[in-house]
Amino acid sequence: MSSHSHQNLHSKLTTGGLLISLGIIYGDIGTSPLYVMKAILGDYAISRDIVLGGISCIFWTLTLQTTLKYVIITLNADNHGEGGIFALFALVKKTKIKWLIIPAIIGGSALLADGIITPPISVSSAIEGLRLFNPKINTVPIVIGILIGLFTIQQFGSKIVGKFFSPIMLLWFTMLGVLGTLQIMTDASVFSAINPYYGYKLLQVHPEGYFVLGAVFLCTTGAEALYSDMGHCGRKNIRISWIFVKLMLLLNYFGQGAYLINHEGKTLSEIGGNVQNPFYLIMADWFMPVGIVIATMAAVIASQALISGSFTLINEAMRLNFWPKVKIKYPTELKGQLYIPSINWLLLLGCIGVVLYFRESGNMEHAYGLAIVLCMIMTTILLNFYLIMKRVKLYLIVPLIMVYLLIEFSFLYANITKFMHGGFVTLIIASILIGIMATWYLAKQISKNYTKNVKIDDYKKVLAELSVDLSIPKYATHLVYMTNSNKVDEIEEKVMYSILQKRPKRADLYWFIHVNVLNEPYRKEYRVTEIIQDDIYRVDFYLGFREPTKINLMFKQVIKEMVERGEVDITSRYESLNKNHIIGDFKFVLSERFISNDSLITFFEKVVMNTYFILKKLSLSEQKGFGLDNSSVKVEQFPMVLHPLENIEMKRIK
Fold it and tell me: CB neighbours of 618 closer than 8 A, spacing ≥ 6?
């Protein structure tokens, strides 16, 4: 995608774009009225101060955190049209500050951990409305059934489902606004909650004190997902549609507040009996079944957006060397639409585990929010360096970043109380993900540090002679090696060892292929370097971090274009086949590393490398990762020597 088309995407304002953003972007943040007020009130008696304080905190959180930080400021940090924490990291990587990888890995892992709790809490909150009709209904099997259905349809792509998303979400937000407005008409004094003083007062009068902010925070949990999905809809469409979404959300929150003030002194169980949720209590009895159906559909859409976001996140992590290679499928022709089977089924298992462990959405609230606030803090840190990179004045950056770090650390502290009540679940999941990403990245760095490169010029003569040495049996017409060397005039020593010593490999043409992963999402370019005419060529692919690595197909395309230009002759050099214009065979050689017994490594390096090799066994093989045909691939084992032992002194005796 060209930079011109990115500008078009972000400057274009269309009805279609606005509708799509409703369907894709706001699922998570849009379903928060289902559980936020319920979480703020808990089992305590309703008081005017608590209700107005809760609404005030929600109003200012949505204004400062979601609107100002994400919709106005962070959406400017697009990487060639794409958003999200890894896209932001790819941007600030240019600053060459190495430790920025830490907030990127922590933030990405926290966002993925959040993807395991959002579907259960959204779907459970919606389904629990059924208790109005049958108080003893067990909602757990229904929730699990819906989640299994949702994850099963992922393999077909969300294109078909996507057509229904936007109208349903438009209906959902309209319903939120109408329900809220009807209640506000009974008590408009609820608008006094706009005064931030009530928010301050909440911290003093609420039985949980300062820690009630953990419940308030739930109203903005979808802001990070909003930034991640920017590439689907465009900045302008998101900003304009947010005006409508925020208005509808606030109307609903204020409506719930007006209803609750009219029932001051009672608890939620005293008003609603089986349904202790102000979201459902503000509905008329006749409308309740319709409301539950619409809420369930909105919850499924919120879950869908997070699942799609998780696939995109893992794909980016793989391309940035944070995650082992896993199988990726492209169910539709839609740009950026992908399906990762292993992640899909792992997410489903995680979601089912969460439902079985917590059972009620009220219990899930304790685990929700702790991981995502970590992600928001990491985004703020990266955003700071993005603003510095963009040469924004320091007197603007410092107060802005300090204010957001203060807000987010306050939310983090308030959420800490959730740790023992279930927050540990998401933090354990996030820690496992951080461990995998850090191990994979460190192992790649260790491996890179101990890979020796040699100058191709030193081997040009011997390769040219080997190519015509008839005393050595021909190994292949075209011999292709994947190389990690960034420099065109260098190649790994192990490649030369493989060609000349492991078993001399005579070929008519030698090809070296290198893949450069760029800091931008969508780009597909290649460069061919002729090292020796009709003998040695190097092909460099330049791919965006969201592009699939289909080396087999891309290499064929390169060869086809080179043949059309008359740059290379790929017909077989065997006389009988050449006469009949038969294309020569292509053989790929891939190297697999193992730690040599001659390595003298530290305990830390040993742990990292051993974990790396375990993960490697579980991940996709190199040939599948590069999309190569197994029949034309030879995998060779190479020892990797870390910190070689010193020379062993020995005395020769007669």
Answer: 324
